[in-house]
Amino acid sequence: MKKENWSKIFIWVGIFLMFLLIPFWIENQYLISVITSMFINALLATSCWFIMITGQVTLGHAGFAAIGGYLSAALITKYTLNSWPSLLFALIIVGSLALIIGYITLQIKGIYFIVVTLALGEVIRIIFSAWRDPFGGLTGLMNLPPPNSLKIPFIFTINFLSPISLYYLTLLFSFLGILIMTYLYISPIGLIFQGIRQADDLAESVGIDIMGYKVFSFVVGSIFAGLGGILYTYNVKTIQPSSFTLIQSTNYLLYVAVGGSANILGPIIGAFSLNILSELLRPIKEFEPIVFALILIGTVILFPSGLLGLIQKIGRKIDEIIFHISNKTVLSSNVS
Fold first, then answer.
1. What is the Cα 79 distance to its own chain's centre?
2. Which residue has the higher pLDDT, 135 or 13?
């Protein structure tokens, strides 16, 4: 791996360490819960973006989050399985379903793929709405227990009973998921993904298995969507079909569009920015969809590269100003 790619990994580690300190700076438990939900949305937005980098736009992403969340919750409450094996089993099922669905749906492209994934997401939601046992039907599963404690013999036990402990658990899993997707994106696999997005016919003509790579992208993105659904159930302690609607899938795309799709930082910036805005709009919650729609329109028209592109543009301008100032300083010193 190139040195600049390793530097990106180190930057992510630095960001992770910074987030580790947040509970020491913020004592408000509600704010801790809000930041925790931001981590989940950042993971879901990034996993949606990971599918998009091969040129596929999905409107069924919330469906895979629902599968992960529902399976994990049902295994814990109905079959009294430990949280950690249930998490692993749920992700295996999500990945297996994504593999099958991916091979079927990725045969089509463009608007047809979008429509199929939209229908798929709604079908998944309707199935969980109608399936009373073990998924609770329309009311879902309520009063879910916290994740099981992690015990290290003769050393200590980690409980997940408080918002702070759930904060760290969510941070760890979200960070690992984003780090894995970052590693794949900056690896040769990521270059192939980008080549497929830009010209899949050309990529296929040079011997690249474009279907295999598209399915791989779809499976990885879906697995981390399932993980996001599981983390959601851990934090809100309930799961209902109404939490995984088309609106949620649209929100993940909105995070990507507003943040920027050129880099993995884009969906993360979009998720954090719009979640902060959502909290600020809480007193006028009914106007939130209108505000978000206006933001999307404004971003597409004024900042096609998203907030990340705007930040990079401002950074380049600052570099130019510093460069000109330093040049003038050198020239003036030479003249004197």
1. 29
2. 135
Among 252, 228, 96, 98, smallest CA distance to 173 is for 228
CATH of 3-304, one of 3.90.1750, 1.10.150, 1.10.3470, 2.40.10: 1.10.3470
What pLDDT score was predicted for residue 241? 93
Residue 13 predicted with pLDDT over 80: no
Q: Is the pLDDT of residue 209 over 70?
A: yes
**Domain extents in the chain:** 3-304
pLDDT at 2: 54
Across the chain, mean pLDDT equals 88
Which residues have CB under 8 Å from 270's CB, separation 6+?
Answer: 45, 254, 255, 256, 257, 258, 259, 260, 306, 307
Q: How high is the pLDDT of residue 169?
A: 94
Question: Are the C-beta atoms of residues 93 and 67 closer than 8 Å to each other?
Answer: yes
